[in-house]
Each structure stands twice: as structure tokens, then as C-alpha cells.
């Protein structure tokens, strides 16, 4: 092995991964796809070192926009946003970023050490887990609603059921028949997670901020400071057990094939919310709420490497791409790696080195990024909406996405106004397909014999024990939830319609659909009939902005839609027309460049319906 | 004498000059004609350089379909100077939407898509439910064979000579009910005496884990899967090779389908099963592609398939080249999926029977 070129690959991969992690919408998978051709310039293990270093630090830097602006770069950052963004708004951005940095680096270190230690036992470890164990994990995951729902268990379960129903849209996992697609082929692949994130989280949250004449950092007393970051880093070290536990969750989820990384983040977040005391309520800026998901997120890379390198079983789609790249450059993958064990150790050490190389990069970038959070909140929020909606449209460029985005945004705003926590919806969405698929897999192969599997029983027992041990998740100072009749009626209509439609259309997995939809209807009905006083939804101002963005990009293309959106908002804020036109023009050029870079031209969504028709594509 | 010699000299010189002039004229004519014809040839626009060429894939980024498309795109640009070829992986859109987009696209650009055997089976099972008809999409060619293999784990038992009723069950996991591994499993039930039970809804990595854990005693994989490493590591014993191609070499120990097929099985069904495996990754064009463009694409495909640089690029990407020309693929798709196909009901009946065999091994499919 040429140690010099390995070192160059390590530095290049770390630096590039750090930069890509700052770009909302790219995420781990797209970043790996974009950079794989670069990796293949090397012809040997350097390619693996480059890609693994790159992937190891993406989640370290992706926490920066998640904390500073509340914009999750990857779906795994959603748990970090829950407390990271409130911390930033409370003027503790530096502290949150420091804590995130410590937790990420230590999580990465623990994950890599676990990988190195488990190499000799990899095969026996990975083959212990099958669909029954995935089902058990997923069910425990759903039970976390009890922990993460700030608006009470019943409301949490309702939104979790809604999330699960949304996850059922698309092709049925076993019969491959379309389900709830209403004749729209665009829905055959299901609803993209970016749509849920943008519509349910970013748009409502940012519209609320835009309507407050305040700075993003409300207190604005403690802007970015090196001392703040160091304080955050040291504060995180005070949560050693939490970091260790979250890292173990991350490693475990990383080892399991097909279980998304966001599950690890939510799991550890819920553990923290249940068991770790915080002076600030969770969801309002609790430091452990940032530490737990960040440690899990980085630790899972070590876990995911284990089945990928030593068994040739990629634990995620990202690992699958890395595996293919390694095979292409001649690195033996799977049982053949036993012939060159030193490669496994080099790749494991890469995770450790990359996580520590990311620390100085973090210090270099954070001052500039956090300075933006001192800007007027409305402008940051404006950019966040454009990025989130633009990413969702660009990521899955189908026309149905426009409609889904509008629908998700309206629902998200309604839940935000009613102060219903939307985290359970995301949990239901993430875990819904895993629960259903694992259930059918278990039923076909094992049936009731699954209960004869010791590990399955152990996980179930540990889950039940954890739930019983759960401390009541209190939210001191939490704002009371509202139950607007219009919103409840809408939810009730959705659950009943889904149940009726599933029965009439003989939808695949009917019992499962009925359990979720009828359960959701019963819980919603209970709240509907027991509410004390009618409450009305107060729709935020500036809603015309997202509407202009969606309709403009549908008709005139994504660059024009985003430019029109900026123009509208800037003019409404009293900016001179010349300045507004210049900024909008810049946004137009930037989006055109992004579309060209991502290869979106010519597509109906990038060109818009009008140009598409005029050019007769 | 001197006069004579002068005349002779003049005549000879004149003759010589004339010959030289004639020769020069001929050469000039030839050169000019050649140059002119060359100019005409160079100026004659190739249909492949007049429009942008886009190849859409929907497989895993870095997977076999994706890699074939990219290596082919590079070779096409090399062979057609001035051609602009882009490859777009639109996995998030899903293959149905992407194939539909190509199927409905106009002739403003040259739109192509790479499909695998699974889509052929999808159309066989879903029929009119799909928004495209593969038999109406002209084929540019087939990149390689999928070469499906049935392999078993340690301790699994089977005997091709035993009647099906006495066969131990081979339990495999498949992706879903319209994926190629499911179809091959039920069709093998119908045309051999094997008894395969496919469990549906599994991803490849979970299948592999379960196989290694002993929860499954058999597995169905394609020659382009990275999982072929299981054969090399000795975890998987190759049992039955569906296709007729000769790669990967580790599969060569497996029995060929033709050697173990049920004597009563419909030969047309058997041949189709082999062909679907052989026509593994297809490059299809939009139905509105002009005949000139299609011809140019097919000629280019044929040239590129024999190009040593293309073959070496494929080899570097770990892919095997077993190309087949577009017209052969066209005939096959029309015969199998075209309107009024007599083969389609036969395949459908064999699949139905193969499904019944999984539940009841006494069922006979061809009487």
C-alpha cells in the first residue's frame, strides 16, 4: 500500500465530504454518486479511503445548516433539528454546534473502534439478524411516539398513523401491486421523504419565523464565539453515557441491512428524551437532544461497514454504491476480504481519521455559517423555504410532487398552528414501510416460529422493559395544543376514506391498512367529540410566497419559480425593486447552474410546462 | 539525323509530357474526387450527431444497467465525433415512470432506456395496467445476458431425476411478485421437476443474509449480481443455469436447463425462459424514433460491441459483454409481448401452474 496516496485520498475525501454535507438536498447518497467518478481516478484501496472519508464527515457538517437554519440536509438530520434549531434561536448556536461536533467525532470514533473489534465475529453477528428482529426493532421504534410526541400520546399516535398511511402509498412490498396511487404513475415509487420534510416541517416553521419581526437569534446576545463552541464541546463530554449508548444504537442500526440511518437518530433521541434530564424541555432546545442523534449518526458508519466489507451485504444504498466502487477498483469484498484483512483495518481507521480531520474544518466554516443566523430571520427563512421546496422538486422531478408539496405544506401549517408535534408523523413515515415489510417477510418464512428465535424475544423484552421504564415525558412550559374542528374533521375524513377505499379497491395488505386507518379514525374521533372549546386555525401571512414558488415553477420552470418567489417576498418586505430584481436574478442564475450540474435540463420540471409545450418535447 | 533526333526527342518529350500531364490530371481528379466525396461524406449529417442522445436508467446507481449505459455512452461519443450523449439515472422516479416518459417522448431528441428482464415479466403480468408496451419500443440491442442461476446452500437436497412429488422443497426469497427472480422460480417449477417455494418482498441484501444464516436453502441470482461472490466463496453451490451463455466461469458447474427440463414441457415456453435470461439488459428507443436514427443506432451498437476499447472498459467495470443485435431483440419482444401473441397465454398458464406447484408438489403442468 502506498501510504502517501492513501493520505491524499483521506484529506481530499474529508474536505469534499465536509463541503457536500453543507449543501441541503444532496444527502449522503447523491454526494457519493457525484463523487464516485473522482474516486475511480485511483486504482486501488485509495478509492475506498476517499469515499469512506467523504461519507464519514457528511453528517458532521450537515448538522451545521440543521442547527443554524433548521434546514435538514439529510433525513437523518431531522432529529438534530428538533432541538438544534431552537437552541440557535435562543442564541446558543455556538454551544449546539460545539456539542454536535464532539458527539459526531466521538460517535464516529466509537463506531470505527467497534468495527475494528468486530471484524473477527462479523459473519456470526450479522447472520443473527433477520426480518423477525427487524420487525421487533421497528415496533419498538413506533412505540417511541410516546416519547417524542410533545402534544400528548393520542395526538402523537394519530400523526404516527397518518405517517404510516403515507408510507403505504406506492407499490405493495410483496405483491408489487400499486396501492393508493389513484392512477398516478408518479406515486408508484411512494412519497419522497423530501416532500414530507419540506411541506410538514420547513415551510410551516419558516413561515412562522417570517412573520415575526425578529432576528433568527431571538436573544442575539451570544452570537458565534469560539468560547461558545468550546463550551458546547466540553458540555457534550459531560454526557458520556448518552454518547456511548447512542453510538451503540447507531452501530446496531448500521449493521442491520435495510434499516435507515434516521431510525438510529430517532431511537437515540427518544432514549435521551426519556432518560436524560435537561434544563430545557426536549423540542425546545435541549442539548442532549442534539448530542444523541449526532453520535448515533456518525457511529452507524462503522456498523454499516461491517456487513458491507466482510460479507458483501451493504447496510444501506450508500454502502451499496461504495461497495460497487470498491469492487470496480479491485478491492476484494465479502468473504474474499479475508485474503487482505489489512484493507479492512485501513478502511476502519479511515473513519477515525476523517472524523478528527473534520474538527479543524468545522472551526473554519462555522464562523461564516453562523454569522448568517444574525441576519434578519425573515431573510434566512425565505432562503430556507426556497431551498427546501426547490430540493424536493429537483430531487424527485415529477409533476405530482408539486401537488404533494402543496398538500403537505397546508397540513404542516395546520399542525403547526394547532401546536401538534409533527415528529411522530415522520417516525410513522420512516418506520411504516419497515414494519409492514418485515411483518410479511416474517409471516412467510417463520410465522409463529419467529417466537422461537432467542434474539427476537430478547429485543421484544428489552423494548417492553424500556417502555415500562420510561419516565413520563413532561414538557414544562409547553404551549397547550389546540384541536381546531376543521383540522380534526379533515383527519377523520382522511382515515375513514382510506379505510373505505382500501376495502373497496382490495388494496394489498388490507388488514394492516385497516388497523392503522381505523385506529387513527378512532383516536381522532375521540378528540373530536371530547374537545372543550372550538378553536380556529390562524393561517400565517406570506403564504403567497410558497404558492408563487410552486405554481411559478410548475408553469415556468424551477429557476423562474424561485426567482419569482424571491421577487415577491423581497418587494413585500419593502426592498427597492432594483435590489429585489438583482437578488432574484442571482437566484435564477444559481438555480440554473444547479440544474445544469445535476443534469435536470431538459426536463419538464426544470423547463416548466409552458416552455415544455412551446419547445414541443 | 540531328533533325530526326530532335523530332524524336520532341515527340518523346511531348509524349512524356502528355503522359505526365495525363497522369497528373488523373491523380488530381482522383484526389479532388476523393476529397470532394470526402467533404460530401463529412458534411453528410449523421442522425446521431444532429440530436442530443439521452440514455435513462433506473437501476441502482453503479449497478449493472447504470454502468452499461455509461460505458456505452462513452463509446458512442468516441465512435460518433460530435455526438452528445448523456446518461441520467432517475431511480427516484421509478422504472415505470421513466420508461413511460421515453415511450411517450417525441423525436426532438433521441431518447433511450436500459431495461432488465424484470420489466419484460412486469408487462407479462400487469399487461394493460402499464403505461407502455415494450413490443412497440424498437430495440437498439442487448448489452449482456442476465444468466440466471439457481444455487443452493450447504445441506440442501435435490435430484433432477426424482419425480416432483419426492423432491425436497427449495425455499428461496424473491424481490416481489413481478420481479424476474419470482418469475424464473415459478417457471422452473412448471418446466422442471423442481419444487421451489418463493417468499416475496425481500431486498437482495436481506436475502443474502438469510441465505448465509441458513433461513433459506436456495437463492436465485443473476450473472451480473455482486452476489456471485457467494459461489466463489463456496457458500453457494450452482445447481441450474437458466441461460445459454458461458459466464461467469464460476457458474459453469451448474446443469443447463435444456438437460433437465420436463420431457412434456412446451419447448416454446422453455426457449422463452432461456431467451429472457439471455436478453438480459436491453437498450430500447422511443417508438417515435425515426427509421434512419434507429438504423444508425443499431450500426453504432454493432460496431461498439466489437470495439476492443469498449470491451476493456466493461471489463474494468467488472461487466461481461454478451451483446445481441437489436433486430433479434425486436423479434423476441414482439413474439412474446406483441398483440395477438400466441406465446403470452402459454407463459401465463405455465406461471399459474408454477405457483400452484409451490403449494402442492403433486401438480402436473404439462399433460
Task: Give a structural overview.
- By secondary structure, chain A is mostly helical.
- Chain A is 71% helix and 1% strand.
- Chain A has 27 helices and 2 strands.
- Chain A has helices spanning 3-21, 27-39, 45-69, 78-89, 93-118, 122-126, 131-143, 145-148, 153-167, 193-210, 226-237, 240-255, 261-275, 288-311, 317-328, 341-372, 377-395, 399-417, 423-445, 454-469, 485-504, 510-530, 544-556, 558-572, 577-597, 604-607, 609-614; strands spanning 170-171, 178-179.
- Chain A has a two-stranded antiparallel sheet with strand order 1-2.
- In chain A, β1 and β2 form a beta hairpin.
- Chain A starts with a helix and ends with a helix.
- Chain B is an alpha/beta fold and 367 residues long.
- Chain B is built from 14 helices and 12 strands.
- Chain B has a 6-stranded mixed β-sheet, sandwiched between helices. A 4-stranded mixed β-sheet of chain B has the order 8-5-9-10. A two-stranded parallel ribbon of chain B has the order 6-7.
- In chain B, α3 (64-79) crosses α11 (291-305), α3 (64-79) runs antiparallel to α12 (308-316) and α6 packs across α14 (343-359).
- Chain B starts with a helix and ends in an 8-residue tail after the last helix.
- Residues 7-13 and 31-42 of chain B have low confidence and may be disordered.
- The interface between A and B is large, with 57 and 52 residues.
Amino acid at each position: 500500500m502506498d501510504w502517501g496516496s492513501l493520505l491524499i485520498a483521506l484529506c481530499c475525501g474529508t474536505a469534499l465530504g465536509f463541503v457536500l454535507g453543507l449543501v441541503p438536498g444532496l444527502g449522503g447518497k447523491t454526494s457519493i454518486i457525484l463523487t464516485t467518478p473522482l474516486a475511480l481516478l485511483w486504482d486501488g484501496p485509495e478509492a475506498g479511503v476517499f469515499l469512506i472519508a467523504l461519507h464519514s464527515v457528511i453528517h458532521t457538517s450537515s448538522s451545521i445548516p440543521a442547527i443554524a437554519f433548521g434546514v435538514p440536509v439529510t433525513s437523518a438530520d431531522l432529529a438534530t433539528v428538533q432541538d438544534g434549531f431552537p437552541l440557535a434561536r435562543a442564541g446558543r448556536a455556538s454551544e449546539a454546534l460545539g456539542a454536535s461536533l464532539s458527539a459526531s467525532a466521538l460517535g464516529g470514533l466509537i463506531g470505527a473502534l467497534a468495527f475494528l473489534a468486530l471484524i473477527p465475529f462479523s459473519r456470526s453477528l450479522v447472520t443473527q439478524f433477520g426480518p423477525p428482529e427487524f420487525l421487533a426493532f421497528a415496533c419498538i421504534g413506533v412505540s417511541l411516539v410516546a416519547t417524542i410526541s410533545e402534544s400528548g400520546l393520542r395526538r402523537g399516535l394519530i400523526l404516527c398513523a397518518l405517517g404510516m398511511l403515507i408510507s403505504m402509498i406506492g407499490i405493495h412490498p410483496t405483491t408489487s401491486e400499486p396501492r393508493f396511487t389513484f392512477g398516478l404513475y408518479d406515486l408508484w415509487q411512494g412519497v419522497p421523504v423530501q416532500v414530507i420534510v419540506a411541506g410538514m416541517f420547513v415551510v410551516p416553521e419558516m413561515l412562522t419565523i417570517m412573520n415575526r419581526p425578529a432576528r433568527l437569534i431571538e436573544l442575539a446576545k451570544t452570537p458565534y464565539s469560539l468560547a461558545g463552541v468550546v463550551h458546547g464541546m466540553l458540555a457534550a463530554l459531560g454526557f458520556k453515557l448518552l454518547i456511548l449508548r447512542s453510538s451503540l444504537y447507531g452501530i446496531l442500526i448500521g449493521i442491520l441491512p435495510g434499516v435507515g440511518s434516521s431510525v438510529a437518530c430517532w431511537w437515540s433521541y427518544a432514549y435521551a428524551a426519556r432518560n436524560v434530564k435537561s434544563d430545557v424541555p426536549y423540542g425546545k432546545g435541549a442539548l442532549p437532544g442534539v448530542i444523541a442523534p449526532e453520535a448515533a449518526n456518525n457511529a452507524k458508519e462503522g456498523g454499516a461497514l461491517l456487513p458491507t466489507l466482510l460479507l458483501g451485504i451493504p447496510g444501506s444504498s450508500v454502502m451499496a454504491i461504495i461497495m460497487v466502487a470498491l469492487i470496480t477498483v479491485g478491492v476484494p469484498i465479502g468473504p474474499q476480504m479475508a485474503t487482505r484483512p489489512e484493507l479492512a483495518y485501513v478502511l476502519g481507521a479511515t473513519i477515525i481519521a476523517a472524523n478528527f480531520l473534520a474538527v479543524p474544518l468545522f472551526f473554519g466554516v462555522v464562523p461564516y455559517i453562523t454569522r448568517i443566523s444574525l441576519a434578519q430571520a425573515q431573510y434566512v427563512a425565505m432562503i430556507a423555504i426556497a431551498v427546501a421546496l426547490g430540493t424536493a422538486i429537483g430531487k424527485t422531478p415529477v409533476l405530482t410532487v408539486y401537488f404533494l408539496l402543496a398538500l403537505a405544506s397546508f397540513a404542516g401549517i395546520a399542525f403547526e398552528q394547532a401546536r401538534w408535534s409533527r415528529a411522530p408523523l415522520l417516525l410513522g413515515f420512516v418506520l411504516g414501510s419497515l414494519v409492514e415489510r418485515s411483518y410479511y417477510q416474517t409471516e412467510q418464512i417463520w410465522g409463529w416460529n419467529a417466537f422461537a428465535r432467542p434474539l427476537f424475544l430478547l429485543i421484544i423484552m428489552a423494548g417492553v422493559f424500556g417502555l415500562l421504564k420510561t419516565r413520563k415525558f413532561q414538557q414544562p412550559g409547553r404551549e397547550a395544543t389546540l384541536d381546531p374542528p376543521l383540522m380534526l374533521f379533515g383527519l377523520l375524513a382522511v382515515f375513514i376514506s382510506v379505510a373505505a377505499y382500501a376495502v373497496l379497491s382490495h388494496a394489498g395488505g388490507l388488514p394492516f391498512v385497516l388497523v392503522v386507518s381505523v385506529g387513527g379514525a378512532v383516536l381522532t374521533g375521540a378528540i373530536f367529540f371530547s374537545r372543550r372549546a372550538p378553536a380556529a386555525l390562524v393561517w400565517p401571512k406570506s403564504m403567497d410566497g410558497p404558492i408563487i414558488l410552486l405554481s411559478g415553477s410548475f408553469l415556468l420552470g424551477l429557476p423562474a419559480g424561485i426567482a419569482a418567489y424571491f421577487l415577491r417576498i423581497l418587494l413585500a418586505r419593502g426592498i427597492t425593486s432594483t435590489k429585489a430584481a438583482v437578488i432574484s436574478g442571482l437566484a435564477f442564475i444559481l438555480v440554473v447552474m444547479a440544474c445544469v450540474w445535476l443534469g435536470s435540463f431538459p426536463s419538464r420540471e426544470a423547463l416548466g410546462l409552458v416552455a415544455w409545450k412551446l419547445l414541443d418535447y | 539525323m540531328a533533325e530526326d533526333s530532335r523530332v524524336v526527342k520532341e515527340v518523346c518529350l511531348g509524349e512524356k509530357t502528355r503522359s505526365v500531364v495525363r497522369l497528373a490530371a488523373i491523380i488530381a481528379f482522383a484526389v479532388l474526387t476523393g476529397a470532394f466525396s470526402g467533404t460530401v461524406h463529412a458534411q453528410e449529417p449523421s442522425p446521431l450527431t444532429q440530436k442530443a442522445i439521452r440514455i435513462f436508467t433506473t437501476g441502482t446507481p453503479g449497478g449493472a444497467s447504470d454502468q452499461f449505459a455509461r460505458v456505452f455512452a462513452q463509446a458512442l461519443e468516441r465512435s460518433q465525433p460530435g455526438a452528445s450523449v448523456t446518461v441520467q439515472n432517475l431511480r427516484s422516479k421509478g422504472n415505470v415512470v421513466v420508461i413511460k416518459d421515453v415511450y411517450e417522448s417525441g423525436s426532438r431528441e433521441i431518447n433511450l432506456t436500459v431495461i432488465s428482464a424484470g420489466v419484460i415479466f412486469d408487462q407479462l403480468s400487469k399487461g394493460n395496467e402499464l403505461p407502455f408496451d415494450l413490443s412497440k419500443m424498437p430495440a437498439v440491442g442487448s448489452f449482456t445476458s442476465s444468466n440466471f442461476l439457481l444455487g443452493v446452500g450447504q445441506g440442501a437436497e435435490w435430484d433432477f431425476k426424482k419425480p416432483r412429488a419426492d423432491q425436497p422443497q427449495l425455499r428461496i426469497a424473491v424481490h416481489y411478485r413481478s420481479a424476474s427472480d419470482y418469475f424464473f422460480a415459478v417457471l422452473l417449477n412448471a418446466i422442471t421437476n423442481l419444487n421451489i417455494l418463493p417468499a416475496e418482498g425481500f431486498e437482495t441484501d436481506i436475502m443474502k443474509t438469510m441465505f448465509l444464516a441458513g433461513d433459506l436453502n436456495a437463492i436465485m441470482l443473476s450473472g451480473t449480481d455482486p452476489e456471485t461472490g457467494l459461489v466463489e466463496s463456496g457458500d453457494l453451490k450452482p445447481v441450474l443455469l437458466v441461460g445459454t451463455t458461458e459466464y461467469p466461469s464460476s457458474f459453469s458447474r451448474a446443469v443447463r436447463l435444456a438437460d433437465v427440463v420436463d420431457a412434456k414441457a412446451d419447448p416454446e415456453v422453455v426457449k422463452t425462459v432461456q431467451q429472457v435470461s439471455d436478453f438480459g439488459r436491453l437498450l430500447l428507443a422511443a417508438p417515435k424514433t425515426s427509421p434512419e436514427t434507429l438504423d444508425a443506432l443499431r450500426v453504432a451498437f454493432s460496431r461498439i460491441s466489437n470495439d476492443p476499447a469498449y470491451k476493456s472498459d466493461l471489463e474494468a467495470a467488472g461487466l461481461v459483454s454478451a451483446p445481441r443485435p437489436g433486430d433479434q431483440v425486436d423479434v423476441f419482444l414482439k413474439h412474446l409481448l406483441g398483440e395477438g401473441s400466441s406465446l403470452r397465454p402459454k407463459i401465463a398458464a405455465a406461471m399459474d401452474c408454477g405457483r400452484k406447484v409451490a403449494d402442492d408438489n403433486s401438480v402436473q403442468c404439462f399433460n
